[in-house]
C-alpha cells in the first residue's frame, strides 16, 4: 500500500550537507501497524515527514496505492494528503479552540455542512472516549486526553493512513498503553494503516506487526516483530531489545570466562513452554549452567532467550545440540 523507493533526504545548510535519510526502501501493507525505530538523529522524523511531503524528498519516490506522491502538483497533493492523518509527540492542538472545535477544524476545511460536522465530531468524541471534554480547552486536558483529541482530528476525514511521529513519547507508561490500545482499535475497526516512529521498543513490542530499524539515515534491519525478537541481526536491534525492562544485557557474558560450551537458545510460542533444560540434563550426560534468560510477551506469542553453559564431553554436547534443534529451538553457539 505504501511503497518507498530509494528515498533520500539531504539537508543543505551553508556549505554543509547532511544526509538525514539515505536510500530507504520499504513496503508497508494495508492494515499493517508498521514501526520505525531508531536512536535520536537516525532520520525517523524526516522519513515519516517525507511520507506526506511535509518534507520534500531529495531523491526517490513514494507510492500510496500506486499513486506517486512525489510527482503530484500542489492541488493533487492537497487531495491526497486528506488520506493521510498525522499525530505528533506534542499533540499540536490549537490552544485557542475547544476540543470540539479542534476536531471540527479539518472538516470545516473540507467545507462539510454544519449538521454533518456536528454529527461527525460527536461520533469521534464518543470513539476516543472524550464526550465529557468537548467544551474544554487543550490546557485543561492531560497528555493522554490531548493525544486522543489529536487522534480524533487526524481520523476525522477517514484517512487511509495514520502517521504517528513519537505519538506516545511524551506520555507515562499507563497512558501510553491506553493510546496504543486506541491506535490498535483504529487499525482493527477502521482498517487504517498505521506507520509509527518511536525510540521505545515497548511500543514496537506492544502494537507493531513489522518494524524497520534506522541508523544513520538507513534502514539496517526490517522484520516481523516476532522474528526481530527471536533473532535480532544487528547490534542496534540487540541493544533495543536488551533495553527493555527486565531484559539482561548479554554483553556481560564473555565465553572466555567459562570452560564449557556457551549456547544461546531462542524459542517462539509453544516451544517456550517446553521443559527443555531439564530434558537435556536427564537425556545426556552433561551439566547445564543457566547464565541468563528472558521472555518477552509479544502481541500474539512469546519469544524467549536462554544462555546456557553446557559442560561435558563433546560427543554428549553435540547430541544435546541436535536434540534442541529438533525441538524447534534456534541454537547459536556463542
Ligand atoms: N530541517 C533540517 N535542517 C537540517 N538538518 C536537519 C533538519 N531536520 C533534521 N535534520 C537533521 O537530520 C538528522 C535526522 O533527524 P531526524 O529528526 O529525522 O531524526 P530522528 O531519528 O527523528 O531523531 P529524533 O528522535 O531526535 O527526532 C539529524 O542529524 C538532524 O539534525
TrEMBL record:
One GO MF term: ATP binding
Stretches assigned to the ABC transporter domain: 2-241
Coiled coil: none
Short name of any one Pfam family annotated for the protein: ABC_tran
Keyword Cell membrane: yes
Keyword Cell membrane: yes
Alphabetized UniProt keyword annotations: Amino-acid transport, ATP-binding, Cell membrane, Membrane, Nucleotide-binding, Translocase, Transport
SMART domains named among the record's database cross-references: AAA, NIL
Chain segments annotated as transmembrane: none
Name under which the protein is recorded: Methionine ABC transporter ATP-binding protein
Originating organism: Tissierella carlieri
High-level lineage: Bacteria, Bacillati, Bacillota, Tissierellia, Tissierellales
Amino acid at each position: 500500500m505504501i511503497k518507498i523507493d530509494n528515498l533520500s533526504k539531504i539537508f543543505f545548510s551553508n556549505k554543509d550537507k547532511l544526509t538525514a535519510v539515505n536510500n530507504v526502501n520499504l513496503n508497508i501493507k494495508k492494515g499493517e501497524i508498521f514501526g520505525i525505530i531508531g536512536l535520536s538523529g537516525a532520520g525517523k522524523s524526516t522519513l515519516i515527514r517525507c511520507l506526506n511531503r511535509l518534507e520534500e524528498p531529495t531523491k526517490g519516490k513514494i507510492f500510496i496505492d500506486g499513486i506517486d506522491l512525489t510527482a503530484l502538483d500542489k492541488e493533487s497533493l492537497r487531495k491526497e494528503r486528506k488520506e493521510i492523518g498525522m499525530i505528533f509527540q506534542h499533540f499540536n492542538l490549537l490552544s485557542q479552540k475547544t476540543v470540539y472545535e479542534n476536531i471540527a477544524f479539518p472538516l470545516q476545511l473540507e467545507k462539510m455542512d454544519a449538521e454533518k460536522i456536528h454529527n461527525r465530531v460527536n461520533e469521534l468524541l464518543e470513539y476516543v472516549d472524550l464526550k465529557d471534554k468537548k467544551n474544554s480547552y487543550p490546557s485543561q486536558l492531560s497528555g493522554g486526553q490531548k493525544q486522543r483529541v489529536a487522534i480524533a482530528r487526524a481520523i476525522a476525514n477517514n484517512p487511509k493512513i495514520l502517521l504517528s511521529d513519537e505519538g506516545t513519547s511524551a506520555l507515562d507508561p499507563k497512558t501510553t498503553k491506553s493510546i496504543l490500545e486506541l491506535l490498535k482499535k483504529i487499525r482493527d475497526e477502521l482498517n487504517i494503516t498505521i506507520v509509527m516512529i518511536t525510540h521505545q521498543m515497548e511500543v514496537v513490542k506492544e502494537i507493531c506487526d513489522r518494524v524497520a530499524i534506522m541508523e544513520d539515515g538507513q534502514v539496517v534491519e526490517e522484520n516481523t516483530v516476532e522474528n526481530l525478537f527471536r533473532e535480532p541481526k544487528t547490534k542496534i536491534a540487540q541493544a533495543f531489545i536488551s533495553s527493555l525492562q527486565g531484559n539482561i544485557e548479554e554483553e556481560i557474558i564473555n565465553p572466555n570466562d567459562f570452560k564449557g560450551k556457551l549456547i544461546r537458545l531462542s524459542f517462539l510460542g509453544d516451544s517456550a513452554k517446553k521443559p527443555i533444560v531439564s530434558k537435556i540434563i536427564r537425556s545426556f550426560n552433561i551439566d547445564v549452567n543457566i547464565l541468563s534468560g528472558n521472555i518477552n510477551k509479544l502481541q500474539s506469542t512469546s519469544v524467549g532467550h536462554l544462555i546456557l553453559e553446557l559442560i561435558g564431553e563433546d560427543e554428549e554436547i553435540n547430541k544435546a545440540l541436535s536434540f534442541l534443534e529438533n525441538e524447534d529451538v534456534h541454537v547459536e553457539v556463542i
